[in-house]
Specification:
heterodimer; A: about 600 residues; alpha/beta; FAD/NAD(P)-binding domain; Polyamine Oxidase, Chain A, domain 2; 4 domains; five-stranded parallel β-sheet; 21 helices; about 45% helix; B: about 110 residues; mainly alpha; about 70% helix; about 0% strand; elongated
Chain lengths: ~600, ~110
């Protein structure tokens, strides 16, 4: 029986091992921390459990959903979601709702937002390489500044002008004005064909004792099937020869050296660290590329307050630029079992940092003090309500999508693909800002590859199915041949451009629409005058009977006008479309003649 | 004869560029109709005011039947701009929406 070594005991690593066990392949999981779960672990501090970030369990991949239920069974709870944005003393619903946002901004700001949006639509920036350009082109610069700039820059620690547009394309749903209006006017979200959209926004699954419960249970199941998980092992060397990884050397937290061999290797460790650990050393070009990959670190300051309820949200995004924290979690609202005492509340204040930042080096007491100060500054809790606090640091929490990452990643990926028994999966293993479910899917595919399938783990598509508003799908989330790279707006092919440029206007459709609008318009104009009444009703409008036989401003006339104006409008629309199409055909013919002539001249 | 040849070449060119049917950008159409209508009524009103006379804009004044508060005055020109922009925008949106729906329907059938 073949044996696999899995580096990393987070969602991707444990999923890979779990899937391998189902396929009859034994595995050993190596986890650097003393606890499994990675970013999705749950920390227990004096009975108060907290999540490293918030982990909603929602997915559009049925396979992953089944896996979650299979592992956790009855301990999986359905929870309601509430999240808001805090900006300059005001709260805004998140996801944004047009009415709420405009009401919160006030009429003057809303007007400026409208103007800015109009400007963006009429005069979009031609270049769309960074996040600022991408968002401003879709939402207007003003909305970008209010709802995107400050928070994004807090999270990523770099100006939005230095963040690739990929991230925005992957994570931000485009704004559709008709859809926004529909949502603002009607409380139930319906799709165009009338189906109620699956409300992934309002509810989500959550393990009773936090996300770490899922991974601790997964580890137990692996153990029952004879697979070992080794905790506290830091990988130092990945030895390879002739395109195959032979063994891994790690070190325990006590300093002992561990050597582990295997037939297959699945790594979830950050690509930069993996490349650096390879022995013999990777080529200079690959090392250089790996060294340019960056990661955002992050720490949580947990405050325990003696108040039963502080705010109703699961989490709040803090866009206000006057404080450093980026998000606040209220763990009790994720699951009531996260706190041992219902009279108390534990809050997680999230700070996104680089490990070189001063705050990263601050002592626990100093960070807790900062958390208390900022919480009282934005009016959430009073200083004397805080009883206790702690800090959890998480290194390399987010792969950074800067302007260089795509080139570097391509070089690293090409090199790693030369190893026949090494696969990388998960968020850091692919340097892709995937959610838990997509990370797990890459792990499932990698495990199946070990068993003989040939799935492209890089092809797990993060664009098509991410946005939560879309309906639940039963199809797999891979798009064959795209290799997962279709995350930015794709450039049209010449054929598509030609087709779009010469597309025909449907004369019947245009005729009908102009006819209907014209007919109904005249009908409404007539009856408005009839309702207003007077001695002589609508003498001027009646002059239309010079063109519309039998029309006058009367009830009968309004219907005659409706019929005739509809017919007239149809003819106008039809003729306009036909003439336009004829013109385009003639132009296409002319271009073809010119091309033929040029070709003949060349021959 | 020549005309026939030319026609068939034209048809050929049309076939080669595909039979894609354009969809109207409803948002753009709304904006364009709104701006043209709004500015159109504004300029028409202002033009009459500049030309002046004893009884300015007798016929244009009748739009007050549909746009409460509108008159051929400087204030009316601004009020008219907003009314016409709203109505124009609605007309543009209606044409675009109806057209796109019919195109989808015809393509399906």
């Amino acid at each position: 029986m073949s044996h696999a070594v899995v580096i990393g005991g987070g969602p991707a690593g444990l999923t890979a091992a779990y899937e391998l066990s189902k396929l009859g392949v034994g595995s050993t999981v190596l986890e650097a921390d003393r606890q499994v779960g990675g970013l999705s672990r749950t920390v227990n501090y004096r009975g108060y459990r907290f999540d490293i970030g918030g982990h909603r369990f929602f997915t559009k991949v049925p396979l992953i959903n089944d896996l979650w239920h299979e592992i956790l069974g009855e301990d999986f709870m359905l929870r309601s979601r509430m999240s808001r944005i805090h900006y300059r003393g005001r709260f805004f619903d998140y996801p944004l709702k047009a009415t709420n946002a405009l009401a919160g901004l006030g009429p003057v700001e809303a007007f400026i937002v409208g103007l800015s949006f109009t400007k963006a639509k009429l005069f979009p920036q031609a270049e769309e390489t960074n996040l600022e350009q991408w968002v401003a082109n879709r939402f207007g610069h003003r909305l970008y500044e209010i709802f995107f700039k400050t928070y994004t820059e807090k999270v990523w620690g770099i100006p939005c002008t230095e963040i690739s547009a990929d991230w925005a394309a992957q994570r931000i749903k485009n704004l559709s004005l008709p859809e926004a209006l529909r949502n603002a006017l009607f409380s139930t979200m319906k799709s165009k064909n009338g189906d109620i959209i699956t409300s992934l926004i309002d509810q989500f699954n959550y393990p009773r004792l936090g996300p770490g419960m899922m991974w601790e249970r997964c580890e137990e199941l692996l153990k029952e099937r004879g697979n070992e998980t080794m905790r506290g092992i830091k990988i130092e060397t990945v030895r390879h020869r002739h395109g195959r990884v032979e063994c891994i050397y790690g070190r325990t937290q006590e300093g002992e050296c561990v050597e582990l061999g295997g037939d297959h290797f699945i790594s979830t460790m950050p690509l930069r660290s993996l490349i650096r650990a390879l022995t013999p050393t990777a080529p200079d070009e690959v090392l250089e590329a790996a060294n340019t990959l960056r990661y955002r670190d992050y720490l949580t300051v947990v405050l325990i307050a003696k108040r039963e309820k502080i705010f109703p949200d699961n989490w709040i995004y803090i866009h206000s630029p006057e404080v450093k924290m980026g998000r606040i979690q209220n763990y009790k609202n994720w699951s009531p079992h996260m706190v041992p005492d219902p009279a108390r509340t534990s809050l997680g204040l999230e700070y996104f940092l680089w490990d070189k930042d001063d705050e990263w080096q601050w002592s626990q007491d100093r960070l807790v003090e900062l958390g208390i100060k900022e919480c009282s500054q934005i009016g959430l809790i009073e200083r004397d309500e805080v009883e206790d606090g702690t800090v959890v640091r998480m290194k390399k929490a987010y792969p950074v999508y800067d302007q260089n990452y795509q080139n570097s990643l391509a070089i690293v990926r090409r090199y790693l693909e030369t190893f026949e028994n090494l696969q990388t999966v998960g968020r850091n293993g692919l340097h892709r800002y995937n959610n838990q479910d997509h990370s797990m899917l890459t792990a499932v595919y990698a495990a199946r590859n070990v068993a003989g399938e040939s799935n492209d783990v890089w092809a797990v598509n993060t664009e098509q199915e991410y946005h939560e508003e879309k309906r639940s799908e039963t199809v797999a989330t891979t798009v064959p041949g795209t290799n997962g790279d279709r995350m930015t707006p794709r450039r049209l092919t010449p054929d598509e451009l030609i087709e779009a440029a010469f597309a025909r206007i449907d004369p019947v459709a245009l005729g009908t629409s102009v006819g209907v609008v014209g007919g109904v318009g005249l009908f409404v104009a007539t009856i408005i005058l009839l309702f207003k009444g007077g001695e002589v009703v609508g003498p001027t409008l009646s002059l239309l009977n010079n063109y519309l036989i039998g029309f006058n401003v009367s009830w009968t006339g309004s219907f005659i006008g409706l019929a005739e104006a509809t017919g007239g409008g149809f003819v106008i629309g039809y003729l306009f479309a036909s003439l336009r199409n004829l013109g385009m055909d003639a132009y296409a013919w002319l271009l073809q003649r010119r091309a033929q002539r040029d070709l003949l001249e060349k021959v | 004869m020549m005309a026939n040849v030319a026609k068939s070449e034209k048809d050929l060119a049309a076939e080669e560029v595909g039979r894609a049917v354009a969809k109207l950008q409803t948002g753009v159409l709304t904006l364009v109709f709104a701006l043209i209508s709004g500015l159109g009524l504004f300029l028409m009103t202002v033009w009459l005011l500049i030309r002046s006379g004893k009884r300015v804009g007798l016929h244009l004044q009748l739009l007050g039947n549909y746009f409460p508060g509108y008159s051929v005055t400087w204030a009316g020109s601004v009020i008219g701009f907003f009314y016409a922009a709203v109505v124009g925008g609605f007309v543009g949106w209606s044409i675009g929406t109806i057209y796109n729906r019919i195109v989808v329907f015809r393509q399906r059938s």
